Amino acid sequence: MIFPDEYKHVGVTKSLFPGADEPIYFLTDYLIAERENPETGSAEYEVYHVKKSGEELLRKVEALELIASGEQVVKYDSELNIKDRTLLIETAVKLCTGKVNTVIFTGVDKHITIVNDPDPSSIINIEILDVAPPEPSWLSLVVRRLEASGIFGDLQVRFIETVVDLRHFEGKNTVFPCSASGLEGKCLDSDMLTENGHLLVGCEISKTLFEMRFPELEYSFVNICPFKSDIVVPSEPFITRCCRSEKSGLVNISGFEGVVVHWGASEYQVAEAIRNLVHKIRNNL
Fold it and tell me: Which of 54, 86, 118 is the last residue of a domain?
């Protein structure tokens, strides 16, 4: 796949003979030659890789290596956020059928870039591993809001949600950590328990609190801490959350690279955690 890191590396010319005795801007690594087909009146394109020499702002073209031309190239007919690399790759995959192998994209700021031979496997899946309610889960809500802002556009990632619905455990004998969840059952922060046989759904902190409050009671336990849970388990690189701040940061659980944020992490901390995870994954590739 050819997908320039920045659109500033892509130039456009309408010259009939691109590169012929014409200097080129020092940042230009790829050149799109646009010309009109005299028979149809429609635009046709050639896409080149540029080899240049010199040290000035304008440099000498030493060679143009043809990447694609004619029926191999299409121009997407709408403006997109061309900083969103995942969006462009996924869009290009849909357009690259038959002879087409290269797509030209125009941004909302009128800048232009290209994707040649789009490779969807270059997109990293990040699993949002969380529990609900609330609905949507808190972590899913934060990540999706950040994603919509464009803050992850350069990372070339796709988010997949794996959310365990704790309502499956609701019941009169079930104990949840906090009444703020709105789950039907009893809660450690508000109910007094006097009988054996309750089911505690929580983490190690919940377990400790239960045993401190009700040391004489027998109970069963479902652990929802991603570090020890049998039900909140990653299946690919992931982001999850934990109520213990000392466990925040890059981790490996069940053989998958991931990152943990505190239960009450801010949007900034979530964004930073995801960037750290992606950088680690790409550095290991």
Answer: 118
